[in-house]
């Protein structure tokens, strides 16, 4: 049964924001708590793997786990009675058995959240406490992973990402024909929130009357989320980052990237950036 | 044939398990392990997780493209090894899932945890896999304290007081954990040949009754440094139940009341602490920090 909605994105592209919006739409309440987002975890959860397979994920190699993950999602989708909204930072890919990591049979749909990679580079640098150069390199590295160490324990399963373009392509290459895919641009959520949240709500079968949409927009403005983090704490904030919700703007790369860094990213990702209107046909940044 | 003693059970095995405690040839073992048939599950079986099935007195467990187990009457274990599997693979999954089941079958309650005796206090480290239970327990063992069990503890409900059966299985440590604990892993056996995870033996074993002690609930590593906080209320019981019921046969068995009663007893008698692990793999310094906390909270 197709019961899982994948909330897929490259890191720092608005996934948490999207989960906050979904929480508001699901709860139909006047506010949301950033530490109690009402979605269904992350696809790389070891706990999900362990409790479904009965044996420990730490007894397997990363590749063995990738070979088993499609069964995990199919099994879960077969057992649940409602739609699940599951975050993922994995690229969609095929495992050694030539099976899709996120199988069609389990998938109700995928929401792919995309953000200008120039801004992603800045946000990733803050999130991971790395330099901008390292962040730029990471977005251009074909073998980029999360939780990839094999000589120490990771608290999540390995997530293959590839370059930023690989990641976007892996989920959106058939976007013109794939009716199970919704691509949401971070910048559209920012500048056209009502229209974007309505698309999201309709696609994910959540309440999409005007009041629910307007509440969701109001409950999840950047200032609201940031003030919640400032007045308490956000459990998803990395230990060494000063804050999770940083600027919440588009175009902040102008302040933080050198022209060399920006050009490097544009050269590496120009084709995909143009497809999603982040650069014009001459390769000039739009935001 | 090979003969071993594990968690109090005498095992006769057709498959060699290097690293388990070897014992002399015994005519009446508690458990026999042999290569043989694993049946298709019939209607009497309840699906239990992915590719595993439970029926009264029977368990079928398929480990993806490596090994399949069929356990009958808590006594006879039939094994199919897939072409990619070796004896270490069979041993790893036997210890991870079949051994707890065999102990459950004999009436023990199983908790996903490590146990260690520190200054006459039973210390239980509770957490999911990859939460550093073994690393912290190995750190405490390196400081000279006696090990009750690692990865799971089996609670014996028989007799006047609840007690824990010592399992005497080696710690399973990742390479960087060995380094942080000054354990030389170069000559240690790997848990599985394609993993950088090693079987680290310990020198002092201990047994314990569940009267005095501290339970540490291990949490995710989203902290800059290790933090320890007191924990109270219903969350204590829930944490124990969650870590007991990660063994799904306990959910479908007739021991549910006993398991709940044992969890409630532990929640009542033992102090409870939340242990937030920092970003780095725990070292001997982390173990020392926990010793200080134990001293402060049992004063």
Notes on the protein architecture:
The complex is a heterodimer of chains A (287) and B (299). Chain A has 287 residues and is α/β, with parallel strands linked by helices. Chain A has a single domain (4-117, 144-235), classed as P-loop containing nucleotide triphosphate hydrolases (Rossmann fold, 3-Layer(aba) Sandwich). Chain A is 44% helix and 10% strand. Chain A has helices at 15-27, 46-53, 62-79, 117-127, 132-139, 164-172, 186-191, 193-203, 210-219, 222-231, 253-256, 259-275, and strands spanning 4-9, 84-88, 107-114, 145-146, 159-160, 181-185. In chain A, the strands form 2 sheets. Chain A has a 4-stranded parallel β-sheet with strand order 2-1-3-6, sandwiched between helices. In chain A, strands 4-5 form a two-stranded antiparallel ribbon. In chain A, α1 packs across α9 and α4 packs across α5 (132-139). Chain B has 299 residues and is α+β, with helices and mostly antiparallel strands. Chain B has 7 helices and 21 strands. In chain B, the strands form 4 sheets. Chain B has a 9-stranded mixed β-sheet with strand order 3-1-2-4-9-8-7-6-5, with helices on one face. In chain B, strands 13-11-12-19-21-20 form a 6-stranded mixed β-sheet, sandwiched between helices. Chain B has a 4-stranded antiparallel β-sheet with strand order 10-14-15-18, sandwiched between helices. In chain B, α2 packs across α7 (284-297) and α4 (234-244) crosses α6 (256-269). The interface between A and B is large, with 32 and 41 residues.
């Amino acid at each position: 049964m197709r019961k899982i909605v994948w909330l897929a994105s490259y890191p720092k592209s608005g996934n948490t924001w999207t989960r906050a919006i979904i929480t508001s739409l699901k709860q139909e309440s006047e506010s949301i708590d950033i530490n109690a987002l009402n979605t269904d975890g992350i696809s790389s959860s070891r706990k999900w793997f362990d409790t479904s397979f009965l044996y420990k994920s730490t007894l397997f190699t990363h590749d063995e786990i990738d070979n088993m993950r499609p069964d995990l999602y199919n099994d879960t989708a077969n057992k649940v009675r409602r739609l699940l909204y599951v975050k993922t930072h994995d690229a969609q890919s095929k495992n050694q058995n030539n099976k899709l990591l996120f199988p069609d049979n389990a998938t109700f749909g995928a929401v792919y959240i995309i953000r200008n990679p120039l801004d992603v580079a800045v946000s990733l640098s803050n999130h991971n406490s790395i330099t901008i150069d390292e962040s730029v390199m990471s977005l251009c590295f074909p073998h980029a992973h999360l939780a990839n160490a094999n000589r120490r324990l990771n608290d999540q399963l390995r997530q293959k990402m590839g370059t930023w373009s690989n990641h976007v392509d892996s989920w959106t290459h058939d976007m013109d024909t794939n009716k199970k895919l919704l691509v949401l641009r971070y910048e559209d959520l920012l500048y056209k929130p009502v229209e974007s949240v309505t698309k999201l709500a309709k696609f994910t079968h959540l309440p999409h009357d005007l009041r629910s949409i307007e509440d969701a927009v109001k409950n999840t403005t950047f200032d609201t989320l940031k003030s919640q983090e400032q007045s308490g704490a956000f459990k998803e904030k990395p230990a060494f980052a000063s804050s999770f919700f940083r600027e919440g703007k588009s175009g902040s790369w102008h302040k933080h990237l050198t022209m060399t860094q920006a050009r490097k990213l544009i050269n590496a990702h120009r084709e995909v950036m143009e497809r999603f209107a982040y650069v014009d046909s001459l390769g000039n940044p739009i935001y | 044939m090979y003969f071993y003693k594990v968690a109090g059970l005498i095992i006769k095995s057709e498959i060699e398990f290097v690293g388990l405690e070897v014992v002399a040839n015994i005519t009446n073992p508690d458990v026999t392990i042999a290569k043989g048939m694993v049946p298709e599950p019939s209607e009497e079986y309840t699906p239990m997780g992915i590719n595993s099935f439970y029926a009264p007195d029977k368990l079928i467990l398929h480990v993806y493209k490596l090994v399949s187990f069929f356990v009958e009457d808590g006594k006879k274990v039939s094994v199919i090894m897939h072409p990619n599997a070796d004896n270490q693979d069979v041993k790893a999954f036997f210890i991870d899932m079949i051994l707890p089941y065999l102990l459950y079958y004999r009436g023990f309650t199983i908790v996903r945890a490590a146990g260690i005796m520190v200054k006459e206090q039973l210390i239980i480290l509770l957490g999911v896999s990859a939460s550093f239970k073994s690393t912290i327990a190995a750190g405490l063992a390196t400081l000279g304290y006696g090990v009750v069990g690692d990865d799971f503890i089996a609670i014996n409900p028989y007799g006047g007081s609840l007690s824990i059966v010592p399992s005497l299985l080696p710690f399973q440590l990742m390479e960087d954990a060995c380094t942080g604990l000054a354990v030389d892993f170069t000559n240690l056996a790997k848990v599985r040949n394609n993993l950088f995870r090693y079987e680290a033996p310990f020198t002092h074993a201990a047994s314990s009754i569940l009267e005095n002690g501290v339970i540490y609930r291990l949490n995710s590593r989203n902290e800059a440094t290790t933090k320890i906080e007191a924990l109270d209320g219903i969350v204590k019981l829930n944490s124990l139940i969650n870590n007991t019921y990660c063994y799904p046969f306990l959910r479908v068995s007739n021991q549910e009341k006993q398991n709940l009663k044992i969890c409630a007893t532990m929640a009542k008698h033992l102090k409870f602490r939340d242990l937030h692990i920092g970003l780095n793999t725990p070292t001997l310094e982390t173990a020392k920090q926990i010793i200080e906390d134990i001293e402060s909270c049992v004063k």
